[in-house]
Amino acid sequence: MGAGDPAETFRQEAQELIEQLEQALLDLEQTPSDRDLVDSAFRALHTIKGSGAMFGFEVMAAFTHHVESAFDQVRKGKLQASPPLVALALEAQDIIKSMILEPDIDNSSREKALLDELSKLVSAEGETAKNGAPAAEAVSAPSQAQRWRINFSLARDALVMGVNPLLLLDELRSLGHCTVTALTDLIPPLAEIEAEGSYLRWDVVLTTDVPRSVIEDVFIFVQDDADLSISLTDLPGEGRLGEILVDRCAVSRQVVEELVAARPPLGEMLVEAGRVAPEVVKSALAEQKHLIREQVDSAKEAKSSASIRVPAERLDELMDRVGELVIVQARLKQLASSNGGAQFKAVAEEMERLISELRDTTMTIRMVPIGSLFSRFRRLVHDLGRDLDKKVSLVTSGEETELDKTVIERLNDPLVHLIRNSIDHGVEGAAERLAAGKSGEGEVRLEAYHSGAQVVISVKDDGRGLDRGRIQAKAEENGLIPPGAKLPDDELFQLIFQPGFSTAKEVTNVSGRGVGMDVVKRGIEDLRGTVDIGLRSGGGTEVTVRLPLTLAIIDGLLVRVGMGRYVIPLPTVEECVELSPQDDLRSTGRSFLSIRGELVPFVRLRDLFASPLPPDPYQKVVIVSLGDSRVGLVVDQVIGDHQTVIKSLSKLHSSIKAFSGATILGDGSVALILDVEHLIEWVMEQSDVALLEAGE
Amino acid sequence: MSKNILSVDDSASIRQMVKMTLAGAGYGVVEACDGADALGKARVNSVNMVVTDLNMPNMDGLSLIRELRKLPEYRGVPIIFLTTESDDEKKKEAKAAGATGWITKPFKQDQLLAVVKKVIG
Amino acid sequence: MEVLTLGLQDDIFALEADIVREILDLVPVTEVPNAPLFVNAVINVRGRVVPLCDLRLKFGMERRPHTRDTRIVVIEVPISGEATIVGLLVDKVYEVAEIAADSMEDVPRIGLRWSPEFIRGVGKRGTDFIMVLDIQQIFAIAPRSVDLTAA
Questions:
Q1: Does domain C2-150 correspond to CATH entry 1.10.10.10?
Q2: Do A194 and A168 share a structural domain?
Q3: Mutate which of A645, A653, A683, A686 to disrupt the C interface (most C C-beta within 10 Å)?
Q4: Rounded CA gap, A155 and A159, in Å?
Q5: CA gyration radius for chain B?
Q6: In chain A, how many domains are there?
Q7: pLDDT tens column, C48-65
């Protein structure tokens, strides 16, 4: 079955089901007490009804429902599969068939008649089918924010049954301002704990304007087995702890007032005095914090949203400091785990969380989506097309890709020039395009995306592409290469970026004065990036600009190959598997793994990196993927998650394609970051070669 | 890393629709046409969630749910069943067998995605 | 001209002092696979990943094992137009000395043990001849794209 219209698939399927139903009914006429036949008929009706409703056959589904219900009664033994019933069912089946395959025919009178007969028959013997339509929910929607107290605990086996309380809490958080307190008072002593049991309770204070039913829906799957309470609270804004506790009926007002007269914090005292359980105080304190934050937030909103101008160098410094904090924190974490006591570890963990939040905030400060740049180009493309009498459209993708603000500004000129080039030299006039079998309108494509520690921006056109002969001739003419020299394509095309290089036969106003491409390249290199130009496989030219991200923090998987450690960007990692001895036995470095029926080419990084040590006994394979390509990287050891700042490699190493950067580990040593895009490309090429060689 | 979902239904059109919906949202989908098929596939694939119909030949949904819960690697994996009736009895049965939640048929693509998101994020 | 004198194998060389940022004892070194032999490692200098160059390899000297005197001289040098921090692995660091600029002589055509292309000139400090390194030349060749398949 192809990737066609599911409704069409349904029609085909329905025909089979109708046939199945018919057979079952005919056989049932002969042997009315055969349970299997009843089941078969029921299932067919059930599926036809269910699928039908999904693919637009609501009327049919509603009709079938009644027949299905009747057969359900038969299954449960409340009704007999009497000859009249089977006869009705057969006629119903005809009607259903007509409804599906001949949608233009009006079957309503037949339908009604049959249903009348059916209900008479069924009510004579058993219960009539209930109408399965769910009652519409009465939604009362107060649209101003209210504050709710929600308390829940899950059934002991909830976790085993696939419930994830964190997701429930996330759902609550998505409804509004939310403060969560986990209560641990029901956790039994260690000896009594079931490893997978759920013992926590949660108190949540939620300020939201959604109706109660929405909050209840969060718990829809667990409410039968969970302890859940949802109540409104309307305490005034400056909730004092005592007020909150009294409101919760945790303690009487008198007791609170008595003790407030003394000095220590109320909560402490109440607990000391045994008047309130510590858990309740903890939760009430959280509610208090929630209330205070609410006030602060609403005060903030009252002011107009403010922004301030900051000199870029200060931001640079700030980001450098944050970067250093991240590195030091990694060392602290390592020290804590090897030397630290429990308290030390707790503090180190808290620091990790705070620094992570700090880093997230600072990283966003200077980043701006490249879309702001792309949108300027629409006008440019339009005007150029008009000036040069060519039809060109601009297609963009990746507008949300973020770059440092200064980088974006400095990209403007180079990109403008590249686009001009594409339209001027690349895209042909309408007549020439049509003659070449292309559409009359040319397309310039701007794409941007993150890849590892870089941002990639490409300018593609579907024009006439690069003329090797002309480029070679011009290069020889300019003395850049000796006559007759044979260079690989990418090197030949790089010559285009040399000063004074232009193969345009006429110098147009727009471009081609020969000052363009070398300025572009220098501009990109000033941003510590690289630019490549090449032919697109479908025709046309592609210019690819790669820029390092200024302060990039990577979530990576730390692995060991031989004595060196390397980081694989986590977003590219799909899974890790062990290299089985059979797969390992192959002697060449290019082999395939079978994962869930799919062949995945893999490469032994130790071979690629010429590691002198003997391999570890149990090698691991990290499966990485980008787009549709998946490749396995064999390593000696997978060490674990690692998060730290990306450092660019210097010019001396930046041309080594295998690595896109480096990072500093907790112990101060350096780990290189693998350029997954390049590795995947390389392995795919090698595996293509291997396949060819193997003659497949 | 993408999340994988095991989709079990004897109806090819439902399977197709579920696969289109989930794959389109970036989930990996492993399909099975009945409980027995699903159990076999469940053993060799690692999935983050199971969506299954209840009425199927060869092993119905309830039995499948029970069998899955016996497997150690399926402890903690959410199992959602498809039900056409708002039949409380069926829901109780399924939950007793070990199901986590349900979707009522007929359902739209958004509803399926909403439940999946609710249950595995 | 102020220079930093250093030892490579048994000879004394010198670097202009103003490009020297700091001098480090040996630190853990991370090898960079597939890099040219001369710069096949990186080190961590105060949170910065810095390439480590083995000057001895530039001169075709044999690689001796590290000794207590082995040092890393961190310099700043323009490479392909960009100021780059680089670490130089040397056998020994002597001192900062003053060489009269006019006492510098051209590199003799013959009689030098080492390839003259990386030496700017020969200066005299007391009775010793000191070969002043031409750092620009040492780092002048920008490496081309290195393929994974190249050794």
A1: no
A2: yes
A3: A653
A4: 8
A5: 13
A6: 5
A7: 889 999 988 888 787 778
